[in-house]
Amino acid sequence: MAKHQNVPTAVQAEQFDDFVKQWQDLLGLHRWRIEPGHKQAKDAMASIEFNDDAKLATYRLGDFGATPINDKSLSQTALHEVLHVFLHELIAAAQDRGAEPNLDAVEHSVINVLETVLYGVLHGAPEQKEG
């Protein structure tokens, strides 16, 4: 007997895409194209793959298991995937042993965005600033 899967409907997938765009905008990830893939994520609510040359991140939705699919779970999962994009360049720079100067610049880019977002949480809507 096939196992029941708790996967997003087409409407929920569109909602997820809207949440991805909201988080992408909030985190200032305008350099990246973040688009849905056509296959289902395996063993995860969602997954993401990168094409660095094209600055393209492709996400896939999967089985949410026992987690109800609603605005909260869709938004949190979208945030999780967008945070992979947010940290991608920092992780890549850290893995490149010869990238010491670049690592510092990427680290500060991450810090600048977090500073803006977190300050905005405490003191009103965040202002976008260049990293």
Could you describe the 3D structure shown?
The structure is a single chain. With 131 residues, the chain is an alpha+beta fold. It has one domain (10-123): 2-Layer Sandwich (Zincin-like). It is built from three helices and three strands, in the order αβββαα. The chain has a three-stranded mixed β-sheet, covered by helices on one side. The longest helix is centred in the middle third of the chain and has 25 residues, at 71-95. The mean pLDDT is 89.
Radius of gyration: 16 Å
Q: Could you give a short account of the major beta sheet?
A: 3 strands, mixed
User: What is the approximate shape?
Assistant: globular
Average pLDDT confidence is: 89
Q: Judging by the overall fold, what is the CATH architecture? A: 2-Layer Sandwich
* Succession of helices and strands: HEEEHH
What would CATH call the class?
Answer: Alpha Beta
Helix proportion: 40-55%
Order of neighbouring strands in the sheet with most strands: 1-3-2
CATH topology: Zincin-like
Content of β-strand: 5-15%
Q: What structural category characterises the helix and strand content?
A: alpha+beta
Alpha carbon gap, first and last residue:
52 Å
Number of discrete domains: 1
Summed up, the helix count is 3
Low-confidence stretches: none
Number of strands: 3
